[in-house]
Write a structure and sequence with these properties.
The protein is an alpha/beta fold. The chain has 2 domains: about 260 residues, TIM Barrel (Alpha-Beta Barrel); about 100 residues, Immunoglobulin-like (Sandwich). Helix content is about 25%, strand content about 20%. It is built from 9 helices and 14 strands. The strands form 2 sheets. It has an 8-stranded antiparallel beta sheet with strand order 11-14-9-8-7-10-13-12. A 6-stranded parallel beta sheet has the order 4-3-2-1-6-5. Helix 4 packs across helix 5. The longest helix has 23 residues. It starts with 7 loop residues before the first helix and ends with a strand. Its EC number is 3.2.1.51. Keywords: Glycosidase, Hydrolase, Signal. GO terms for molecular function: alpha-L-fucosidase activity.
């Protein structure tokens, strides 16, 4: 069987590498996550009144796009409609349960698309297939599917070209009997929250460290997957200072290694543990190394791993040097071309630095 190759559209998506996911809607006013209506058994009549206080007075699509751009993100996926059935877009008469009929009195998706395009960010639309608001979802599923089709048609015909549509169809899909022999190229994307909720959680203080998020971004690229990191704006549409600061730190790391994150492809070169390699179209191989210590006095540096030998396998091309990208430091190495075994001495981070994942290049 021939190995499938990605279409131009899929290849472009994979090269975008890193994106922002935004969960925002009526539920954000309650500050208890995006499933609050369902999990807290809030009557629909009561929940729907949140439309009258949904002002979106702090929603600035351009500012959010600039924030994503600063973080090194190339695309943004926004929840145009979530499971509560409320639409951030103008449904063109399909329903009055949408942003133009709320206190916001605006088409927020039109603003989102405009803000993204002005910053060179690709807009994507998330759209639910569940709907707790529409009675037909329970009582007339064929009728609901027609409503859903018409809703998606509005998104596809009134906002110009977008990157694509995201749906969580897998929630209701049975497991296939056989995953072998797929002849179609399939791209991958991992979605993750900064804390424990997709939508705004006012009292969710369990935020992931920037180090963990950077390591997860690198792990995604190891296997050629995109990384979609979620933020949950507050009621008015503003992203919290903490989440903004988290994105800014990731952006600092992207400034160092971003081109490899976008252009690098999985390599047959294998590292040990979390270490891995990426290759670029110019034939270079880059080694991503975890768990290094900081050089300095033991009493003032926190040891998180160690220096010393790092081993990579299947390095069959000749090797003349191995050096860190950040400071061009040449690293001692041995290489057996017959076995493909490369062993180099990884030095620690210069005092004052810790990149979480450090990159060396083979020449």
């Amino acid at each position: 069987m021939a190995i499938p190759v990605p279409s131009a559209r899929v290849a472009k998506f994979e090269k975008q590498a890193f994106g922002m996911f935004i969960h925002w809607g009526l539920y954000s006013q309650l500050g208890q996550g995006e499933w609050v209506q369902h999990l807290k058994n809030i009557p629909m009549e009561e929940y729907a009144r949140l439309k009258d206080t949904f002002t979106a007075d702090e929603f600035d699509a351009g500012q959010i796009a600039r924030m994503a751009k600063r973080a090194g993100m190339k695309y943004i996926v926004l929840t145009t409609r979530h499971h509560d059935g409320f639409s951030l877009y103008d449904t063109r008469g399909l329903s009055d349960y949408d942003a133009p009929h709320s206190a916001a009195k605006r088409d927020l998706i039109a603003e989102f698309v405009k803000g993204c395009r002005e910053e060179g960010i690709t807009p994507f639309f998330y759209h639910t297939t569940l709907d707790w608001y529409q009675p037909s979802f329970k009582d007339d599923f064929d009728g609901y599917l027609e409503y859903l089709r018409a809703s998606v048609e509005v998104l596809c015909t009134h906002y110009g070209e977008i990157g694509g549509l995201s749906v969580t169809f897998e929630q209701g899909r049975p497991e296939p009997m056989n995953r072998e022999g797929m002849s179609k190229y399939v791209s991958a994307e991992m979605c993750q929250t900064i804390n424990g909720h997709w939508g705004f959680g006012r009292h969710d203080f369990s935020n992931k460290s920037t180090g963990e998020l950077i390591a997860n971004l690198a792990a995604c690229r190891k296997v050629g997957a995109n990384y979609l990191l979620n933020v949950g704006p507050q009621a008015g549409g503003r992203i919290s200072k903490l989440q903004e600061a988290t994105l800014e730190v990731i952006g600092d790391w992207i400034e160092m290694y971003g081109q490899l994150i976008y252009d690098g492809k999985p390599s047959r070169v294998q590292g040990q543990g979390s270490n891995f390699a990426l290759e670029t179209d110019d034939g270079k191989t880059y080694l991503f190394v975890h768990d290094l210590t900081i050089d300095g006095h033991a009493n003032v540096t926190a040891a998180v791993g160690g220096v010393g030998p790092r081993v990579f396998m299947d390095v069959t091309a000749p090797v003349s040097s191995v050096r860190w990208l950040d400071n061009n430091e040449e690293l001692a190495f041995t290489h057996d071309a017959d076995s493909g075994l490369l062993c180099f001495h990884a030095t620690g981070y210069p005092y004052g630095d810790n990149f979480v994942v450090r990159v060396a290049v083979i020449s």
